[in-house]
Amino acid sequence: GGGGGGTLHLSVTDPQQIGEGRNAHTFYRIDVRPNQYADTIASVRRRYSDFRWLFQRLHEERPGAIIPIIPHTKAFQIEKRLSEELIEERRGSCETFLRRVQIHPELEGAPSISAFFSPDAEVFEQAKKDHPETEGFISEDGTTSSAKEKVKHFFVKAGIKAKVARGVDLEETPDAAQVDEVEQYLSALETHVKALAKATLYLVDVSKETSTNMHELGQTLFGLHQTYDPDTTTPDDNDSSNNNSNAKSKNPSLKTISNIFASLSAINKVKYDDNYAKVSKPIIDIQDNIKAARLALKRRKDHAITYNTFLQQIKNRQAALEKLNHKNATSPQATTENQIVSTQQLLDESNKSSKVALAALEKVTQRVFREMDRFKHSVDAQLRLLYVNHARVQVDYSRQLDVEWNKLLPNGNGGGGGGAVNGRVGGGGVDDGVLSKEAEMMMI
């Protein structure tokens, strides 16, 4: 919450599996600290489904806000559904989700956040009971309509949705043109980022494929070295054909070449891991952010449909009232007069509800505009940093790769010698002739 006391540090840790088989599920521990290195001041345990509940509630409580995406639930086999890799992936995703929710300016003070972090289990369980997926219709002014009116409202709303599906424009607020610009921006951004992701992820995956191929090359060359090694084979003095082969070759031995390829494989694998963390994950994150922005716009459209539903309801009731007045004028009856009074009351309710719906739509629209301003700046900054990081990875690991390739050249470090590639463990930098610790461990 607000208050100017600084941002608390949230961490999701210690996944614990409860139950067995299809009833098995995992609880994650959420710790709250004043800062990363301070003692825990609060701690709760939540299931993955609880995070999804929070995600859905935030959309209800703050429609139009760009809520951070959490991975969608997928159907897994039992052994995969609770695998360590999946649990760790979910743990990281949930931690990122909470940290983004915590600093989101539009989500401050959301009731579901307080319930989610409540140390009182009963408070959280009650919140979930009070706010499951809503069924039935409760009008925007908070009054519950009769069963008959619920059915009518349902069909009116279904008719409005059908019109939208056919491309019929809704009756909009004065900001409709600006909303269209937002939708056009998102469509263009989605297209461009999709193309960027395809090309960028391919470039990142090249290092992984190269690492695998280099590893296979190294193993094959080492196998060939074991079948014949001129440096350890004793030539037959009576064989004159060996006279020209006794001289030591200026080229590195197959064993040395094998070790160099092992080193190249290791460097490319570490390069891939670095690229994945600094390039692949961020661009996938941008794609998720676009999905989140789309969901925010969808919530705004839901409110526009609700507003138009009441407008259509007003037209329907006005038409019904005109018919009743005409009928009563030509053939006055007590029953007709009662229907007129009842229909007028329903029309008044529709007018009141339409005003409430319009106010809600305008509020959500303004929230969408605020969010999109932040979103555009964020995406621009993310893309800039992503490709700067990509360039740094290429430069850093190109130095290491150049050093290893140079060892294969006659004037390099590998000419004429047998044995392993000499290298020393670097202290964090990527200097010429120095393998990173990760690459050296990969070689081993």
Overview of the molecule:
The structure is a single chain. With 444 residues, this protein is mainly α. Helices cover 64% and strands 7% of the residues. The protein contains ten helices and five strands. The chain has helices spanning 48-61, 78-81, 84-103, 111-116, 121-130, 147-165, 176-227, 254-330, 334-406, 437-443; strands at 9-18, 25-33, 42-47, 424-425, 434-435. The strands form two sheets. A three-stranded antiparallel beta sheet has the order 1-2-3. A two-stranded parallel ribbon has the order 4-5. A hairpin with an 8-residue loop joins strand 2 (25-33) and strand 3 (42-47). Helix 6 (147-165) packs across helix 8 (254-330) and helix 7 packs antiparallel against helix 8 (254-330). The protein is elongated and about 130 Å long. It starts with 8 loop residues before the first strand and ends with a helix.
Task: Please provide a brief summary of the model.
The protein is mainly α and 444 residues long.
